[in-house]
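Example record for the data management plan.
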Amino acid sequence: QYNLGGAMTDYARAIELNPKNPLFYLNRSRAHLFLQEFDSTIADCNRSIDLDYNKEEVYLIRGMAYREIEFFDESLEDFNRAIRRNPDNTYNYVQRGLLYMDRDEPDKAIDDFNRAIVMNSNNSFALFHRGLARIETSDTLGAYDDLNRVIELAPRNSHAYYNRAILRLGEHDEDGALEDLDRVISLNPDNIIVYLYRGKIKY
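Corresponding structural encoding:
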């Protein structure tokens, strides 16, 4: 269980004792990001950079915060910086791919998800989001392949079943869609939208 309030208190005390240590600001920025305090995340990352910390992680964290507040150009710059510093980290490509999806550039997103998957063919997170990007580009067969693979790797991923159900509805495979929606409900019984879809199919 997280004790973020206690963590924030400790980070504040550490910074008070040693305000010139960039790692204290970096660690606090992670907590701010988790709490969805995006302006504070960016401020702490900026302070860490001002103190000459220029490693991959600070740009990745700040890029994620910029994306959340829809500062897409700044986010892209930071993800590019993170990738230049560590081109072997699949997570950097996935995060930039998510940004491209937010910018309605699914082809570029697919390129980044592809890079991540080439480095780790079992990256279910990258496979899932490539599937969504393929839906946006009307690559239905590719989307099926990705969602099927996600379900194989992570059989409790309710989002994969849900999106495959939507694909199946588009192909008029109502039995298959019902099967997937039933699985979503078994995993997440509080998902209201699923009951709506399932009710429409049964009606």
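Summary line stored alongside the record: Residues 196 and 202 are 10 Å apart (CA to CA).
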